[in-house]
Amino acid sequence: MIPRNFIYFSPSSEKEALELLNEYKSDARILAGGMSLIPLMKMRLVSPSYLIDINKVESLSYIKEEKNRLRIGALTRYYEIEKSSTLKKLLPIMNEAATWVGDPQVRNMGTIGGSLSHADPSGDFGSVILALNGQIITSSLNGQRTIKADDFFVDSFTTALNANEMLKEIVIDLPEGMNGGAYVKLERKAGDFAIVAVAAQLSIDSKGNCNYAGIGLTSVGPTNLKAKKAESFLLGKQLNERTIDETAEIAASEARPIDDPLRGSAEYKRAMVKVLTKRALNLALKRARGV
Questions:
Q1: CATH number of the CATH domain containing 215
Q2: What pLDDT score does 185 carry?
Q3: pLDDT at position 53
Q4: 114 DSSP 8-state letter
């Protein structure tokens, strides 16, 4: 199939893009990588009257360390995240997650901002940003807003973005002390959407007690989910086999999977949340210890 007719714009600045978005609002869609939007348009599941292609807005593509924070521009592509030496040094969970996204063609074109704005509950980076307690910076002609990642995902394919604003950047406070992260994913075949995936980020003190825990769940709810009860349980505790097992059990209880003829029953997915949470936490702990 081919898309319905639309009017195409290719602004060269953020201000120009926002002016177009402010004028056409819900009748317009932002085109970044297009890895999700173009197929939807071809199937006519989405038919915007106006398409605003922001690929010429180079100011939206960057990975910057700023004091104790990391800033990632919305137009930063997966392959840039995968290969980034800055992320490898500061937040290697980001590099790891990028390797799980689609195939090389998708990673060469797809963008982190496009993925988060699309809000597919099977998207990989939603869970990673939740585990890292990231913040979403949005932009409009009225100024900027800061939205906690946990508040950004409203429902399946629905975010807190207003019709006249777009995602500008992702901001992450860098973890302190001994820390490590991991993203583990179960899929039917290489490059597929997740059956279940888990992002885990940990920080530990000199005695091995947990002083930060972030856990994000993929494909087991209407949105990417933050396993808040599991995170709270782990804080202040010694990280050992027993506490990790209990944390994984709690994370599984927080999942909200549904039966899927392609990717398994809700019961199976919940069981896999427990398995993968345990794996992710153990791997994150190993990395935090520098093993």
A1: 3.30.390.50
A2: 97
A3: 97
A4: H
Is the pLDDT confidence value at 192 over 90?
no
Residue 111 domain flag:
yes
Summarize the confidence of residues 126-147 as an average pLDDT. 97
pLDDT tens figures, 261-275: 889 999 999 999 999
Give residue 202's pLDDT. 97
Burial 20-38 (b: 16+ CB within 10 A, else e): bbeebeeebbbbbbbbbbe
Q: Is residue 41 part of a domain?
A: no
Q: Are 77 and 56 in contact (CB under 8 A)?
A: no
Domain that holds residue 212: 178-286
Cα(64)–Cα(72) distance, integer angstroms:
6
Distance CA 59, CA 163 (A): 22
Whole-model pTM: value is 0.95
CB atoms within 10 A of CB 154: 13
pLDDT, residue 170, reads 98
Measured between alpha carbons, how far is 54 from 12 in angstroms, rounded to an integer?
Answer: 7
Q: Is 152 helix (H, G, I), strand (E, B) or coil?
A: helix
pLDDT of residue 189: 84
Q: Count of domains in the chain?
A: 2
**What CA–CA distance (Å, rounded) separates 156 from 169?**
21
Nearest alpha carbon to residue 239 among 215, 264, 208: 208
Of 149, 173, 197, the domain-final residue = 173
Closest CA to 129 of 172, 69, 74, 99: 172
